[in-house]
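Morning. Coffee machine broken again, so started the prediction first thing and wrote up yesterday's gels while waiting. Chain of 401 residues, entered below exactly as on the submission form.
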Amino acid sequence: MNFTGRTAATFFPPVMEARRWLDGVTQPPGRPLINVSQAAPVDPPPEALRRVIAEAAMNTPEAHLYGAVLGMEGLRAEVATQWNAGYGASLGPANVGITSGCNQAFCAMLSTLCAEGDEVILPTPWYFNHKMWLDMTGVRTVPLPTGATLLPDPEAAAALITPRTRAIVLVTPNNPGGVEYPATLVRALYEVAKAHGIALIIDETYRDFDARSGAPHDLMQDADWGETLIQLYSFSKAYRLTGHRVGAMVASEARMAEAEKFLDAVAICPNQLGQIAALWGMRNLGEWLAGERAEILDRRAAIEEAMPRLSAKGWRLLGCGAYFAYMEHPFDMQSDELAKRLVAEAGVLLLPGTMFTPEGDAAGKRQLRVAFANVDRARIDTLFTRLEGLGWPLAPGYTST
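Came back before lunch.
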């Protein structure tokens, strides 16, 4: 069967592809699989929040009906209020749109920006769903290599801008790299975008797990921020609502009105129960979320503490933060081949750098992403023990002690 539509322009979903590597593989007794392939909490929401969802499902009739295309007014207002406090902004509900997950927020905003043949700059390694959407809409992805620091260079970004460029996209804390972009870097990239009349899109899905205190940037304090900045956010990671699909986007009122056209044609409205849960979580789960953040930061510390064991074997830690550790492996094989072998030979499922970089990219062939949100300190220790014990041939130029 031939597929000639838009979907044929891109690759298959990487997480689903990786799951297929498990088919026919049986782990030996005493060596359960360590799954660090997906950046999504597997535990359910806290009980109090589940009760709110159940209560709404049983006793709130409008929870089962179409709602406003851009989301519940109360949730939009709460986002504006909390963002104003956190970012020093002056947002109103009209600056906020609620979406069926953060991916949909990205798709909606790109639909307001781009026509076929336009260009968008993505730092590499990139978040693969961003690349997939650009492929399927006929928008050219312009890679911006980030090198060993995983931080995009503003001058390099500026050099890539053409008359067809419509946006620069950032993810911070970064997926897949884990790095947290300094506020000065975010500001510099914002000024590049502003000077060229293009958008700066900042995906802050993992901002609740940033190791830094305070706002990650001050861009919303600019009087004309809406001419350049678009921010994306997800409630899924903060309140474990991945299956309820609730995200948010912050932009100018004019751009939000354009995005409403896209959303009405795709989902009509976001999930009502998910919005009810997100609003209750924002108002009541601040202390609980602080505990979740502390646990993630402790797991990040566990990764960094254990890393010397792998460094002695030739591995390199390129970035670590939020849910992710991004590593360079020392073996004489490409990362996609290595990732498949790890399933059967080490009981580890992770994603190769080839899923986050352009085809043929030399850096991606050496890199791996570890999503550690669902593995505690003990499992992290076991993971490192398994990786430390690999005895495969090293690539030229790599040494182990």
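The first strand starts at residue 34 and ends at 35. Going to sketch it on the whiteboard this afternoon.
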